[in-house]
Design the sequence.
């Protein structure tokens, strides 16, 4: 039990296999019958939220992360249609909704906004913290003289890996020692703080985001950032020293990357991270306040 709240986490075996979902439903139903929880909190609308609501618990919260609200052009028509219908069902039938940024809340039908809270996901400040860049580079076996641009490419189409690669081509014309380090989703999570601290700048240029975790993780590690305005990046990075907002034009992006790399300055993005109360502890406090409102029937 932590902060007066105890719970159990359950993961679906699959979100696309019907027989697997039926098995998961039986397992989850048994857990609920045994624990008799006060609240069920599901992450992501669409299949996850729909699944949680079909467990028929009267106090079910859904957190929407972006892909379950945004119109994702790279997703096929049928998948997009089913996802939207499931998310609409979740918005309507949950006891309340949590959305990770204000722009997403504006996409929620007005009749559901009174039961919708904006709370981003938090980052563990004890895991994501600054360390000497040289030490991190040595730990990863990187060349100490190279300039590394870190890019999360776990969904290359939506994250726009093509733009990132083109931007780095322009960067290398002025800074031959620069290279792109692409994360493909198979990296050991324990390695991520080292990668953030060993890199020289983080690049984000996605078509769609909710509240990108890597932006907050980079801030916590004092890693400079070049990002397009997507999701809540403007709210997080505007007027933050060491962070530059730009558009998706590769040449413009390259100019901003070169500007950061040429400064060779130690920025204090972590201070902005803490001031914005983005730590896991701060976010947990906000979520628990929502739980208390639901438990005490004082939601609205």
Sequence:
């Amino acid at each position: 039990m932590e902060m007066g709240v105890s719970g159990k986490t359950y993961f679906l075996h699959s979100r696309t296999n019907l027989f697997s979902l039926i098995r998961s439903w039986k397992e989850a139903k048994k857990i609920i019958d045994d624990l008799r929880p006060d609240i069920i909190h599901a992450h992501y609308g669409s299949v996850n939220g729909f699944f949680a609501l079909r467990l028929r618990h009267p106090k079910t919260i859904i957190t929407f992360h972006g892909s379950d609200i945004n119109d994702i052009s790279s997703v096929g028509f049928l998948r997009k249609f089913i996802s939207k219908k499931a998310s609409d069902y979740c918005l309507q039938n949950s006891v309340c909704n949590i959305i990770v940024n204000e722009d997403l809340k504006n996409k929620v039908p007005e009749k559901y906004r009174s039961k919708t809270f904006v709370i981003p996901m938090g980052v563990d400040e004890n895991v994501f913290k600054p360390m000497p860049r040289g030490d991190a580079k040595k730990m990863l076996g990187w060349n100490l003289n190279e300039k590394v641009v870190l890019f999360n490419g776990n969904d290359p189409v939506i994250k726009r890996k093509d733009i990132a690669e083109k931007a780095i081509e322009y960067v290398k014309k002025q800074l031959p020692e620069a290279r792109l380090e692409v994360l493909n989703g198979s990296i050991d999570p324990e390695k991520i703080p080292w990668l953030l601290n060993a890199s020289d700048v983080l690049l984000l240029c996605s078509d769609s985001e909710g509240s990108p975790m890597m932006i907050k993780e980079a801030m916590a590690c004092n890693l400079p950032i070049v990002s397009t305005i997507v999701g809540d990046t403007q709210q997080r990075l505007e007027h933050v020293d060491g962070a530059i907002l730009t558009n998706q034009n590769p040449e413009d992006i390259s100019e901003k990357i070169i500007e950061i790399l040429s400064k060779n300055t130690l920025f204090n993005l972590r201070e902005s991270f803490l001031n914005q109360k983005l730590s896991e502890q701060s976010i947990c406090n906000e979520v628990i306040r929502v739980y208390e409102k639901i438990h005490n029937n004082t939601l609205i």
Observations:
- The beta strands are 40-43, 60-64, 96-99, 116-118, 147-152, 178-183, 201-204, 225-228, 243-246.
- The first strand starts at residue 40 and ends at 43.
- The mean pLDDT is 93.
